[in-house]
Hints:
- By secondary structure, the chain is mainly α.
- It has one domain (2-97): Orthogonal Bundle (Helix Hairpins), CATH 1.10.287.70.
- The chain contains five helices and no strands.
- It has helices at 2-14, 16-37, 44-55, 68-116, 123-135.
- Helix 1 packs across helix 4 and helix 2 packs antiparallel against helix 4 (68-116).
- The longest helix has 49 residues, at 68-116.
- The protein is rod-shaped, with a radius of gyration of 25 Å.
Amino acid sequence: MKTYQIFRKLVRATGVHKVVLAFIIFFMLSAFIIMLREPQINNYNDACWYCFAVISTCGFGDIVATSFTARVVSVLLSIFAVVVIAMLTGVIVNLYTRLLERRVRGSLTDVMDRLEHLSELSKEELDDISERVRKL
C-alpha cells in the first residue's frame, strides 16, 4: 500500500498523468486525422494500427503514409511518444529510488534502536545487527 501512495504522490508532483492523458487524446486525434487524409487507410482501426506502429518505432510497413498531412502528424506523434516514454521512465526510476531509500532508512532505524539497548541483546541479536550493518 505504501508503494501505491508513493506512486500517487510522484504522479501528482510530476503531472505525468496530465501528459499521458494528453498523449492518449493526441493519439486518437492523430488516428482520426490520418484516417481522413491518408488514401490507403479506410477505417479508424487501421489508423490506430498505423499510429501504434509509428509510436512503437517498429514500422511494420503494411501501411505507409503518403500524404503530407499524415507524415507531419506521424512525426509529431512520434516526438510526443518519445517525451511521454521518457517521462514515464523517470517516474518509475524515481519510485524505485524512493522505495529503496525507505527500505534503507527503515533498516537503519531498526539497527539504531537495537544499538541503544546493546547491553540487553543476546549473542544472536548482536550477530544479526552485525550482519545488517555489513549489508548497509
